[in-house]
DNA sequence: AAGCCGGGGCC
DNA sequence: GGCCCAGGCTT
């Protein structure tokens, strides 16, 4: 009766959050919320969840949409592969499961963008399947409760925590228990300043007894940040503007931006003009520089972007440029990175 | 096993 | 400036 699970469920009944996706057992909506919340705080993701459920009330409507529209709705949330995978998975549900969201854990786990955590979260919340979730909150709560120093970003550590989490699961109420331990991590057992003196689990917390709370969980990986220099060519001709869809294995895949010349170091316009990419775009026809605008330094978790926008006007477009031209009035229909969005807003384009 | 993928909030 | 966030995919 005084088990960890009982204390967590009791705490959750008093202090748990009332969140939109907890008011439904629709696996589609629960799946949607889980993908949105991957590596994303509830406060940041909630607005997107409401936006998506309104525009795409069921999996069929999501599957029927063009990928660009899904990305546009996702704009600003980051980790855009989630949006592409979400869309691909919706089509998987239609094609492989006849539009019915799968029930079996392994079938759910087979969907694009659904890993161990998300599959367990969906199946426990929607179907009360006895699957323990292991997210960042669970790592922290369990690492402290049991004073475990296994690195959470090592294979052995992940396996150890997964088994421990499963052993702690309240199999009578898997859905509620999972929500409880995650809320507990998010609201009570916080990364810093967890206020252990007033914690309902203080009596059972081994890290508290050992004085190692601040050192749990252990993580071995270190994040390296590299610098990149983006030289954007904001080219307009009449009522059209050049826009380009990012491809390849890089940031912002599938999003749109101005034609980009990336350099190894800061570059001035005269240097860019000599490059073949520039000549292919502007050709030999006359053009003129309106002005060059250095954008504020843009910080990603693993990259620091130094971007400059060169506003250029030209009378005629080369074939390569014409293929990229879109009506300037339609720029708002395209999913663009935050960096570009801020620029467009600031200069009212 | 290690790297990569965004953006925002907190200290 | 570094860490963290309801992680997953690729190499």
Automatic annotation (TrEMBL):
It comes from Alistipes senegalensis JC50. Its cofactor is [4Fe-4S] cluster. Its EC number is 3.2.2.31. It comes from the Bacteria. SUPFAM superfamilies: DNA-glycosylase (SSF48150), Nudix (SSF55811). Belongs to the Nth/MutY family. This is Adenine DNA glycosylase. It catalyses: Hydrolyzes free adenine bases from 7,8-dihydro-8-oxoguanine:adenine mismatched double-stranded DNA, leaving an apurinic site. PANTHER family: ADENINE DNA GLYCOSYLASE (PTHR42944:SF1). PROSITE patterns: ENDONUCLEASE_III_1 (PS00764). InterPro entries: A/G_AdeGlyc_MutY (IPR005760), DNA_glycosylase (IPR011257), Endonuclease3_FeS-loop_motif (IPR003651), Endouclease-III_FeS-bd_BS (IPR004035), HhH-GPD_domain (IPR003265), HhH_base_excis_C (IPR023170), MIG/MutY (IPR044298), MutY_C (IPR029119). Keywords: 4Fe-4S, DNA damage, DNA repair, Glycosidase, Hydrolase, Iron, Iron-sulfur, Metal-binding. Adenine glycosylase active on G-A mispairs. MutY also corrects error-prone DNA synthesis past GO lesions which are due to the oxidatively damaged form of guanine: 7,8-dihydro-8-oxoguanine (8-oxo-dGTP). Binds 1 [4Fe-4S] cluster. Residues 36-187 form the HhH-GPD domain. Pfam families: EndIII_4Fe-2S (PF10576), HhH-GPD (PF00730), NUDIX_4 (PF14815).
